[in-house]
Design brief:
By secondary structure, this protein is an all-alpha fold. The chain is built from three helices and no strands.
């Protein structure tokens, strides 16, 4: 399976992305879905959410 390419690689987060992350996390979206919507890696999304105390639902 080919690796995904993220156009926002190593770019700082902006307020719009942070707001969208909060909105999607509040709706109960999973990490994978949020990362794809923001065009960020799952690791980056998880790290940013943890730093800003945003709870992301665990999808099983």
């Amino acid at each position: 399976m080919p690796k995904e390419v993220f156009t926002r690689h190593k770019q700082p987060w902006n307020a719009e992305e942070a707001g969208k992350l909060r909105l999607l996390a509040g709706k109960g979206q999973g990490l994978k879905q949020i990362a794809k919507a923001l065009n960020r890696s799952e690791e980056s999304t998880k790290k940013f959410a943890k730093q800003n105390k945003i709870a992301i639902a665990k999808k099983r």
